[in-house]
Design a protein that fits this description.
The complex is a heterodimer of chains A (240) and B (236).
Chain A lengths: L3 H16 L1 H5 L5 H6 L2 H34 L4 H13 L2 H12 L3 H25 L3 H9 L4 H31 L13 H4 L7 H29 L1 H7 L1
Helix pairs in contact in A: 4-7, 4-9, 4-11, 5-7, 6-7, 7-9, 8-9, 9-11
Chain B lengths: L3 H17 L1 E3 L6 E3 L1 H36 L3 H13 L2 H11 L4 H25 L3 H9 L4 H31 L12 H5 L1 H34 L2 H6 L1
Helix pairs in contact in B: 1-9, 2-5, 2-7, 3-5, 4-5, 5-7, 6-7, 7-9
Classes of the chains: A mainly alpha (240), B mainly alpha (236).
Chain lengths: 240, 236
């Protein structure tokens, strides 16, 4: 107990010297405080990354499977768009608590709600991307003896890639925003730094958590653009 | 023996009971729940959402029409909706609470900021999608720039504009759920103040918010269909 005490007060002095406790006391925007307290954002930020990546990943797996099924059976597109549209419309906060009696509090509930929200966006973009593949390209593929399966994986999906990635980018940016609400489902994330205690009136904290969410959305967007470039080498040759 | 299906449904039945009948609050003393309270919260929810959508339309539709008509500001019109999507609605509300304060006006303003990007982008895109030849035909008939916007571009873009308003409306209704954090007692109060309303109240809030969002979505989907000019509907 006594061993901890001096270190504790030393830290307090350091915060005082660097950012001025008066700045926090007056509830201004205090860059010094953000630098000194950045540690407390690491864990919520990682939770936020986890929630977003897992939800968009599962959402992509489901939407991709649905799109491949609907690609061959066109009549399924309407019902799938309708059903995922309802999931998309339901506010995430409501879904968290509608799921509560079934899945309880925690990450699972948040991931289910966030995943259900991404389906519509990703599904629509994959279907649109596949629809927009030029008929000539498909004819050329069939003419060179590709089977339906080979045509899908070697011609149609690569040509639909820009629209598929566009859907993933919208989904990931939106999910980063919605994941701030995951704190209400007991799943943490950057929202926990906004709503716990009296933090909602704490200017520096609100700006830091909100700013980190925006930066995370940007970072994921850049990663997805990189994936698109890596998966479409022919475009690089074209533009070079 | 407990029927598992009944066990699973019990919380939902209790939540419906909460909406229909008043009961004593968890904190004691006052009565909570019941239809009139639910209707009050719903009305507040619709009031703050409606005000925000109305103001956002009044601002974003004319700007989108003007930008689309002169064909400038594409970067602004498109990127504003990308940036808008990246800012978490919770952070936006919290920002307003921390910097401007709580209350109906402040929540409305925060929701207006949330609602503008989809309406602006859709209006711009809708006007740009109008066939150039139709506009040229209008000009050839001697229409002024204002008449071209009013009689050609707006009617042909209207379904797309309503698509944007629909996206915004659903977003705003969803976000108004966290308005109690800023002192506006919408349906979200059932969800956020579970210490007063209890678990049943919270589930009741989730059900009511979900129903409200679906109602708004279907209402605007209907408006969007009505907004398409008759000529276009025949063509499609």
């Amino acid at each position: 107990m006594f061993l901890v005490e001096p270190a504790h007060s030393f830290a307090a002095v350091e915060i005082h010297n660097r950012s001025g406790s008066s700045c926090i006391a007056q509830n201004k925007l205090c860059p010094g405080w953000i630098i000194d307290n950045f540690d407390r954002y690491t864990h919520p930020l990682l939770q936020h990354v986890y929630l977003t990546v897992v939800s968009v990943g599962i959402g992509f797996a489901i939407a991709f499977s649905l799109a491949l099924v609907a690609h061959r059976r066109r009549w399924l597109v309407g019902p799938i768009v309708g059903l995922t549209g309802v999931l998309y419309t339901l506010p995430s906060l409501a879904v968290f608590f509608l799921l509560l009696p079934i899945t309880g509090r925690g990450t699972t509930t948040a991931v289910i709600a966030l995943t259900s929200y991404t389906l519509q966006i990703i599904f629509r973009n994959i279907v649109a991307g596949l629809d927009n593949v030029p008929a000539e390209a498909k004819d050329a593929g069939l003419g060179s003896g590709l089977t339906d399966r080979q045509l899908l994986w070697r011609v149609e999906l690569p040509l639909a890639l820009p629209e598929i990635i566009a859907g993933l980018r919208i989904a990931s940016t939106t999910t980063v925003g919605l994941a701030t609400l995951a704190v209400f489902a007991g799943a943490g994330g950057l929202g926990s730094e906004i709503v716990t205690g009296s933090n909602i009136t704490f200017k520096t904290g609100v700006v830091t958590a909100g700013g980190l969410a925006v930066l995370l959305a940007l970072a994921l967007d850049i990663v997805l653009l990189g994936v698109q470039r890596a998966l479409s080498p022919w475009r690089r040759v074209q533009s070079a | 023996m407990i029927d598992p299906v009944a066990g699973f449904l019990t919380p939902f039945r209790d939540a419906v009971d909460f909406i229909l009948h008043t009961r004593e609050a968890q904190t004691g003393g006052v009565q909570v729940g019941g239809l009139s309270e639910a209707l009050n919260f719903t009305w507040e929810h619709l009031k703050v959402s409606g005000a925000a959508i109305g103001i956002a339309c009044a601002l974003a539709v004319p700007i989108g029409l003007a930008l689309g008509h002169i064909g400038k500001g594409e970067l602004l019109a498109i990127s504003i909706s990308n940036i808008g999507r990246a800012v978490p609605s919770l952070a936006l509300i919290a920002f307003f609470v921390a910097y401007i304060g709580v209350g109906f006006t402040n929540v409305t303003l925060a929701l207006v900021l949330l609602a503008i990007p989809p309406i602006l982008t859709n209006t711009y895109v809708g006007v740009r999608q109008v066939d150039r030849e139709v506009i040229d035909a209008g000009r050839g008939m001697g229409l002024t720039a204002f008449q071209v916007v009013r009689q050609i571009e707006l009617p042909l873009a209207l379904a797309t504009v309503f698509g944007g308003i629909r996206t915004s409306a659903v977003n705003v209704v969803a976000t108004a759920t966290i308005a109690p954090l800023a002192g506006v007692l919408t349906l979200g109060d059932y969800i956020l103040s579970a210490n007063v309303y209890g678990e049943d109240g919270r589930l009741a809030g989730a059900i009511l918010v979900a129903l409200l969002a679906l109602t708004v979505e279907f209402a605007f989907a209907g408006l969007q269909r009505l907004a398409a000019p008759r000529g276009l509907k025949i063509a499609s």
